[in-house]
Each structure stands twice: as structure tokens, then as C-alpha cells.
Design brief:
Layout: H1 40-47, E1 62-63, E2 75-77, E3 107-109, E4 115-117, E5 121-123, E6 125-126, H2 130-134, H3 136-146, E7 150-152, E8 164-165, E9 171-173, H4 175-186, E10 194-198, H5 200-205, H6 207-215, E11 219-223, E12 234-237, H7 240-248, E13 252-254, H8 260-268, E14 274-277, H9 285-298, E15 302-307, H10 312-325, E16 329-333, E17 338-339, H11 344-349, H12 354-370, E18 378-381, H13 387-396, E19 401-406, H14 408-426, H15 431-434, H16 440-443, H17 447-454, H18 464-486, E20 500-502, H19 505-511, H20 521-529
Parallel strand pairs: 5-19, 6-7, 7-10, 10-11, 11-15, 15-16, 16-18, 18-19
Antiparallel strand pairs: 1-17, 2-20, 3-4, 8-9, 12-14, 13-14
Helix pairs in contact: 3-4, 3-18, 9-10, 10-12, 13-18, 14-18
């Protein structure tokens, strides 16, 4: 097993000089006096805390690359030579009806008031990081035309330079939040939704009241954490004035911008950026129920919860409390996460890895179900990027898991499409793109489909990153249709744990999915002995 080593990684723009590295420390086996770098210890010698974070900030999404003992690749998908489940009522299964394009990838979530999506995927929380802000139109429009949900993450109002607060420090105007909501709603076509996430700072600022009173947002998400980190959200700011402004709004800003020593270091050019941090949240059962009830009284139709890669105790709390509170969707995010900015070593070394956490979530859901409790709809998150991962997550958590939350995987197509748009303007298309053409009509395989969706009058207003997200979602859809057809499942609701097998005995122990030499063995023996 090759676990990730500290002290040198592309995320922190550092590397070891030696080919021989001590596994436990990540240090070169020979550290030479006079070495010119560039390992993390070398760089931290003069840049200190900057080495905690991946960079460059605002231009990168980073994902932990630790190789865990068991992950989703240790599961394989069953295929069958007979039968078909999930065809429309009255349709007889035969080679003419059980064709893979007939597979329905639609899904829905919600306690009473359901939200339908065309594909069982939705975005991770795209909040106050710079990479989310500057690419938002690509992400939002792409999600809207793809018919999937987009999550607007925490702190969007709190960091808005044009934010207006009243005398009670509550939001009066939040132009960036307005922009984000409008971008999604403009091309919304009846599938998915935009939901807004809320943390400690958002609650104090009255974000919930603002978004429902001004925009009529139907769903709000409470946040306990994420798979990337076990502290609050953070961003970097490059000006002293901005750092002081955010500190005045109540955020934790480090190094302290009000300290004259730090102000002098900033003017000297040593301190180049300040970090803005959110506070840690604290949960207890009665306060959780009270907050859910408060939000319902404000008028929200759906309340969801996002929790991170905490241990089994917090997982049990999330499941049971969500059941009691009739939460519409519980998203369970495992390690290692991906983010626009999280402490790198935290991303690598904290929390329960996805498949372990998700296996426990299924086990706990079964316990609640056996007690007669209704399990809320679940979504799994934590490192998914392809249709096979979506299939495995839905099957592993069936029948409770309705969708997969994707972080970086749904952001990348937006950024690629945006860059293609700029490269075309600059006449500088890379060969990797120009081999398919030089116009957007030639390059984007789904261009005409998007044009059909939005209309000829609107297509030129659609950012190319949005078409990129649509193309990526279409790839997930078609790939999922093929895998599901091979498993003879023609609707996402009929996927089950029996459609998976474990490739190792350790995976079988963790997931309780049978080892491949045991899977369907009884049925095989019945055939032989029948």
C-alpha cells in the first residue's frame, strides 16, 4: 500500500531533491547543508504558514491523494445475461425494449416535496473561494441546463465587498448572492434546484431571511462540515483593508490585521496575504431541531444537511437527528476531500475515508429502518468523478442513497470550457482542443443540443463553461445508462447492493458486499445441482 508521504507535493508546489525519501517523515534520506530546495521544510523556513495551503490560491482546486487501504475501486459491478428490472409498467423485457438508451437516470430527493434531477449528481458547495466566485456563471448555467442541483456554499454574503448590513449587523443587500441566484434561475428548466448553504457566520448575518424574502429560495442547507477539512471555511485576501473589513464583520482573520507588527510586515512585503476563517460549529440535538423549525417557519420548503468525514458518533447523530427532523437530504462527505482552499495536511490525514464512512452510513440506516424510523434521503460525496463511481455509490447505499455530490469533477468542465472560450478569442487553441475544430460548434459535441434547449436567441449568451458542464453531465448519463443496462437495471431506484462485488476480502469486511468468489455462489450451485 502506497500511502501519501509528507514534505513534497504538487499541491504545495514543493518537491524533494532526493529520489530516496524517508516514508514516515517525507524528508530526503540525505539532507545536505547547502541544498537549494524545494521541499516543504525548505520552503516553510522562509514562508512559514503559507505552506499549510495548496496554491496558487484562486486558480487551483486541490484534492487529497492519500492511497487508502480500501476505496471504491475495490468494488466491481455485476453484469447479468438475463432479466430486466425497472422498465416502465406493462413493458415486457426483451432485446427490443431493454436497450441501454431506455435506462432512466432520473432521480428525486426530498421528504415530502421532491426535487427531480435528470442525472443523479449535483455540485459540491461552491462558496466563498475565489475559484467559485469567478467561475460561477459557468457552473450555475451549466447545472441549470443539465437539470441538476447546484449548491451555493457558505460565506458568500459575508465576504461580498458590496455587502450592506443594517444596524443589527443583518444583510440588507448582497449583490454577489443576487448574481449567483439569478444566473441559475435564468436557465432553470424544471429539474434540480439552487440551494444555499449556511454556517455560523451566515446565521448571524441573517442570510436565511435575506434569500427567502428577496429570492423565494425553497431549500436551505445546514452545514456540519465536509470531507476536505475539520475546521471552518477559509479564503485568502491580498489587501490589508479587505482583511480589516472582514475582521470587522466578525470573521477570524490571521495573521491579525489589526496588529501593528503584522501591518508593518505587510507593508514590508513579507506578509502577502491574510487568511479569513469561519468559526467552528457546535451541535446539540435540541438546538438542531430548533434551528430546523425556525427555518421552516421562515418558509423554506426543504431543509438539507451536509456533514463531513467525522467518526461514527457524529454520523449516527446526523442520521438519527435528520430522521427525527424530517431532513430532505443528508449529504455524507468522506475523506479525502477536494477544495479551493483547505489545509493540505488536514486534507490528507484527517477523517474517515469515503467508502468506510458510506458503508457505516448504510449499516446505521438499516438499524434506524429496523426500528421503524424513516431514513432521510441520502447523498454520498468524497472523490467521485465518473459514472462507475456514481453506480457504485447508489448501489452501496441502496435504497437510501439517491444521488452523488461531486466537488472538483463538476467544476473542472466549467473551467475548461471557460478557458477554451478565452483561447478562441486569443487565437491560441492548444492542440488538445484544436484537433476537434476551431469553432465552438465544432469543438463542443453537445453544442447543438444546448442550442435546442435554450433557443437560438440565447445560445450566444451561454458561457462555454456551461456547455462544458452539460457535455460532462451527458457523458455521466450515457455511461451510467450503459452500466445500468448491463446490470439489467433500467431505473436508478432498482439498483441494489447485490449489483456489486468486492475484489478483496478486506473490502468485503468493510462494506459487507460479498467477496467476488462468494457473490451469487448459492445461485450458481442451485443451477449446477438443480
Amino acid at each position: 500500500m502506497n500511502l501519501q508521504q509528507p514534505n513534497g507535493n504538487d499541491a504545495t508546489r514543493s518537491a524533494n531533491r532526493s529520489r530516496n525519501v524517508v516514508p514516515s517523515s517525507g524528508l530526503c534520506s540525505r539532507c545536505i547543508d547547502g541544498c537549494k530546495g524545494n521541499c516543504e521544510v525548505f520552503k516553510a523556513t522562509f514562508r512559514g504558514r503559507e505552506l499549510i495551503y495548496p496554491g496558487p490560491f484562486g486558480d487551483v482546486t486541490a484534492g487529497g491523494d492519500k492511497d487508502y487501504p480500501v476505496d471504491y475501486s475495490h468494488l466491481n459491478i455485476h453484469g447479468y445475461a438475463l432479466g430486466a428490472k425497472g422498465l416502465p409498467a406493462g413493458v415486457e423485457a426483451n432485446p427490443d425494449t431493454a436497450r441501454f438508451p431506455n435506462v432512466s437516470t432520473e432521480c428525486e430527493y426530498g421528504w415530502d416535496k421532491k426535487v427531480k434531477m435528470t442525472v443523479p449528481i449535483f455540485t459540491g458547495a461552491l462558496g466563498s473561494t475565489e475559484i467559485a466566485r469567478k467561475n460561477w456563471e459557468h457552473f450555475a448555467v451549466g447545472a441549470a441546463i443539465s437539470g441538476v442541483t447546484i449548491v451555493c456554499g457558505e460565506n458568500v454574503c459575508g465576504i461580498d465587498p458590496k455587502l450592506v448590513l443594517d444596524k443589527n449587523n443583518k444583510v440588507v443587500e448582497a449583490p454577489d448572492m443576487d448574481r449567483r441566484i439569478a444566473a441559475y434561475k435564468k436557465y432553470y428548466r424544471g429539474y434540480g434546484e439552487i440551494l444555499i448553504q449556511m454556517n455560523v457566520e451566515d446565521t448571524r448575518l441573517g442570510v436565511a431571511e435575506y434569500i427567502i424574502n428577496k429570492h423565494g429560495i425553497e431549500t436551505i442547507e445546514l452545514k456540519w462540515g465536509q470531507g476536505a477539512k475539520c475546521i471552518g471555511g477559509e479564503i485568502k485576501v491580498a489587501s490589508l483593508e479587505r482583511a480589516l473589513e472582514l475582521q470587522k464583520r466578525g470573521y477570524i482573520v490571521t495573521p491579525d490585521p489589526s496588529d501593528p507588527v503584522n501591518q508593518k510586515a505587510f507593508k514590508d512585503g513579507a506578509i502577502k496575504e491574510f487568511e479569513r476563517h469561519s468559526r467552528l460549529g457546535f451541535i446539540d440535538e435540541e438546538s438542531f431541531y430548533a434551528e430546523v423549525e425556525r427555518l421552516r417557519k421562515l418558509g423554506f420548503k426543504r431543509i438539507t444537511l451536509k456533514t463531513g468525514a467525522y467518526g461514527l458518533r457524529e454520523l449516527a447523530m446526523a442520521l438519527k437527528w435528520s430522521s427525527n427532523a424530517k431532513i430532505d437530504l443528508l449529504t455524507i462527505d468522506g475523506a479525502s476531500g477536494g477544495t479551493g482552499m483547505s489545509p493540505w495536511r488536514m486534507m490528507e490525514e484527517w477523517g474517515m475515508p469515503s467508502i468506510y464512512l458510506h458503508s457505516a452510513a448504510y449499516e446505521f440506516a438499516e438499524i434506524l429502518n429496523a426500528k421503524g424510523a424513516r431514513v432521510p434521503d441520502l447523498a454520498f460525496a468524497g472523490g467521485f468523478s465518473s459514472e462507475d463511481g456514481v453506480f457504485k455509490a447508489l448501489a452501496l447505499g441502496a435504497p437510501y442513497v439517491k444521488a452523488v455530490c461531486m466537488g472538483r469533477a463538476l467544476m473542472i468542465p466549467g473551467m475548461v470550457g471557460k478557458n477554451i472560450e478565452q483561447w478562441m478569442k486569443d487565437g491560441d487553441l492548444p492542440k488538445t482542443v484544436s484537433e476537434f475544430g476551431t469553432t465552438k460548434e465544432e469543438i463542443f459535441v453537445c453544442y447543438e443540443k444546448v442550442k435546442d434547449i435554450v433557443g437560438a436567441d440565447e445560445i450566444d449568451k451561454i458561457p462555454l463553461g456551461a456547455i462544458g458542464i452539460y457535455s460532462y453531465s451527458d457523458k455521466i448519463k450515457v455511461g451510467l445508462q450503459q452500466l445500468m443496462a448491463g446490470a439489467r437495471c433500467f431505473n436508478t431506484s432498482v439498483l441494489s447492493r447485490k449489483d456489486l462485488m468486492s475484489l478483496t476480502e478486506e473490502c468485503a469486511k468493510v462494506t459487507k458486499i460479498p467477496y467476488l468468489m462468494d457473490s451469487y455462489r448459492e445461485e450458481a450451485l442451485q443451477v449446477l445441482n438443480g
